[in-house]
Amino acid sequence: MTVLIDSWAWIEYFKSSEPGKRAKELIEGGRIIISTINVAEVFRHMLILSKKDAEDALSFMLKTSFVVPVSVKLAKDAALIKHEKKWGLGDSIVLATALQHGAKVVTGDSDFKSEPGIIFLG
């Protein structure tokens, strides 16, 4: 099974929270994709701790995941999702990426709670 680890799940993983411990099994044992938006969101969040923590987190993400860049088609699909669901653009890019790659989204973000194909940790 391919999973897209959402920024929410990465941050909880790096915090070693209870939801992060549940995400650990998927992060450390599966086929993972991430969007470039996840790279930006997690790196920015980890900068709150320190630049070294942010760099270490990014390095781990890049070693364990396949990064899906935002193509024109993906941007268009994300815009359609944003328009339809009235979500933020970041979440829309994540969902469009998962749909394009047949992946389940691992998250605790409440925007995704009622979506099909979600592994909800929250």
Question: What distinguishing features does this structure have?
Answer:
five-stranded parallel β-sheet; single chain; alpha/beta; Rossmann fold; 122 residues; 6 helices; 16% strand; 5 strands
Characterize the structure shown.
Helix 1 (about 5-15) packs across helix 2, helix 1 runs parallel beside helix 3 and helix 3 runs antiparallel to helix 4 (about 50-65). About 60% of the residues lie in helices and about 15% in strands. It has a single domain (about 1-10, about 10-120), classed as 5'-nuclease (Rossmann fold, 3-Layer(aba) Sandwich). The longest helix has 14 residues, at about 50-65. The chain is globular and about 35 Å long. The two termini are about 20 Å apart. It has helices spanning about 5-15, 20-30, 35-45, 50-65, 70-85, 90-100, and strands spanning about 1-5, 30-35, 65-70, 105, 120. The protein contains 6 helices and 5 strands; from the N terminus they run E-H-H-E-H-H-E-H-H-E-E. It has a 5-stranded parallel β-sheet with strand order 3-2-1-4-5, with helices on both faces.
Write the layout of secondary structure elements.
Elements: E1 2-5, H1 7-15, H2 18-29, E2 31-35, H3 36-46, H4 51-64, E3 66-68, H5 72-85, H6 89-101, E4 104-107, E5 118-120
Parallel strand pairs: 1-2, 1-4, 2-3, 4-5
